[in-house]
Amino acid sequence: MTSKQVVLGPGDSIGEEDTYVLHDFLPSELADTALENLLKEVQWNVMTHRADESPPLLPFSPTVERIRQHVEKVLNEPVNHALIQHYRNGSDYISEHSDKTVDVARGSKIVNVSLGAQRIMTLRTKKDVLANLNADLDASNSTSQKRRVQRVPLPHNSIFVMGLQTNARWMHGIARAPERDKFGERISLTFRTIGTYLTRDELHIFGQGAKGKTREEARPVVRGGEDSERLLAAFGAENHQSDFDWDAHYGEGFDVLHFQPTHSIE
């Protein structure tokens, strides 16, 4: 068996060739102060990256808004949502996963801005990609393969732009760092274009990922129940299937905002 593992950087095509990384993204006057300012501005909570976790929705802080404007210049398209994560040292990590795209505008990009200590983004093809490849190789009596792995260093003031095809066929994550205690803190900001919306009172939901697709069709938010179980099952399928059928799993829509699952998923 052979393993393809490479380190990639600016100028390289990453994943399904719809993904790239840029360095020195923000102007120095913003990059030099952003981490310290975000530590003060953001209302931090502890998360464990479960499928049923949903952090509270809050307005962009002044620093997040400035960074968002620079992201939009790179993408030449709007972003309206940011997930902000604080890595206290090299021990903090995010396990390999595919982002859930039920609410992510189709055809858009998922963007990660890094501030502080450099960490490595690892991309790995999903297991079913390997299984399908090896089935074809077995039929031709060729040598079987391992899952492809790509590593992308994310230094301070870099931007990682991921296309949805890469998200579909590859897992991505930030592993624990070697010599963990020697690594400084890092903040990552993940920007997305979200196509599902809540009314101002957060009692009704509509848009791409909801059952009601327009504001006029907005429906009451559901908490728990069969909709939650169906959505969690769809999340699990998206996390493992490289040929995930978005329309079949998500097309009907869901009115779930807060989960009350009876079981966990991987």
Task: Write up what this structure looks like.
Residues 261-266 have low confidence and may be disordered. Helix 1 (28-41) packs across helix 2 (62-75). The chain has 2 domains: 5-192, Sandwich (Jelly Rolls); 197-258, no CATH class. It contains 6 helices and 15 strands. Strand 11 and strand 12 (204-207) form a beta hairpin. The protein has helices spanning 28-41, 62-75, 127-139, 164-169, 226-240, 246-250, and strands spanning 5-7, 20-22, 81-87, 94-97, 109-116, 119-125, 149-154, 158-163, 170-174, 186-192, 196-198, 204-207, 219-220, 222-223, 256-258.
What secondary-structure arrangement, pairings included, does this model have?
Layout (H helix, E strand, L loop, with lengths): L4 E3 L12 E3 L5 H14 L20 H14 L5 E7 L6 E4 L11 E8 L2 E7 L1 H13 L9 E6 L3 E6 H6 E5 L11 E7 L3 E3 L5 E4 L11 E2 L1 E2 L2 H15 L5 H5 L5 E3 L8
Parallel strand pairs: 1-7, 14-15
Antiparallel strand pairs: 2-8, 3-10, 4-9, 5-8, 5-10, 6-7, 6-9, 11-12, 12-13
Keywords:
single chain; methyltransferase activity; Jelly Rolls; alpha+beta; AlkB-like; five-stranded antiparallel β-sheet; DNA oxidative demethylase ALKBH2; methyltransferase; globular; transferase; 2 domains
